[in-house]
User: Fold this.
Amino acid sequence: MMARSDEGSRRLERTMVGSLLWLLLGLLAAGSACTDEADGGSCESGGGPVSGALDLHCMDDQGRGIVQSIGECLTGAQAAGAGGGEVEEFGVFYGSEAFDDGCKYRVSFTHSCIQQNRPVTFDVTLTRNSDGSPATGAMPTTVEAYMEEGHISPSNTFRGPEGPPGTYAIGPVVFDRPGRWVVRFHFYETCSDLPPDSPHGHTAFYIDVP
Assistant:
């Protein structure tokens, strides 16, 4: 009986040691994720998008979605001849997903670690509002990054390589002051923004920088 009791105790000890090892490994993995730039921007003392009101600017009074069709890319005299629509308002949205200002695209993003004076890359996914298909060839190399009191990011050269289709790695964006920033992405910048159905689109998000 004594031998069996000792054997049972040893098994219990081995089980407890194994459980503790798995717990420690899990904690180490979690700690690693908190400082991994590729993990959606999670990093120690890092910033990110601001929580707030839902984006409803592409909903009508009846709660139905507003979808702007996307036409041909026109430039210069072509766009002037096609005529322009109403003056478009530029919004700034909370969270990390919203429609663009013209209700042509759905825009969502993740980001690398956001800290003061640290170059940030935004991985932006762009899909057509009409059918959810990837919006390819957007060439999003124009970014506005500023604070609402007027301060502008020192960044002035951006890249926006595409891959997979409709997903763009936009940056680097440098935030050289702590506080609340606005980051506005532009898509199909070579197309005139005058025609209401132009492929040109833009949307902006609030970003907090610690």
Observations:
- The helical segments are 2-33, 76-82.
- The chain has two domains: 1-33, 48-209.
